[in-house]
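=== RUN LOG ===
request id: a7f3
mode: sequence -> structure
chains: 1
length: 149
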Amino acid sequence: MSELKEKIAYLQGLAEGIQLDKESKEGKLFNAVIDVLDEIAVAIDGVSNNQLEMQSYLEAIDEDLGDVEDDLYGDEEFDYEGDDECDQNCCEECSCNYVEVACPNCHDLLQLDSCMLEDNDVTEITCPNCNEIIYVNEDTLAMKEDKKE
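=== RESULT ===
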């Protein structure tokens, strides 16, 4: 950045050295161009300083996030791609698939665990977006009604 400021100072020196009449059309033009270049250099310097501050701030956030990840997941590497096995251990030798379901009310796309749809403990599933019921397990409802009678 200092190199740019040095070049602008050199141009200012050249303009004074050739003794350009500041009241002539050419003199006014050259002085205006040099002034604009000086303002641009100051603005670039400010942007550069802001960028360095932002970079430092983001590095601090990244370190803090790393600490949070270590606290949450321990020393294990977190697998972002997911496991082939169901986290809920809802059935033996489970290899759950996810089913994409569109909410009939808000049309939000949801990914549901296929084992969740077969689970007898789950009677209905509500949309997290609009809180409307999107799935009713008829078998579970029938079993619950039979038990009540």
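=== NOTES ===
Residues 78-86 have pLDDT under 50 and may be disordered.
The helical segments are 2-17, 25-73, 114-118, 138-148.
=== END ===
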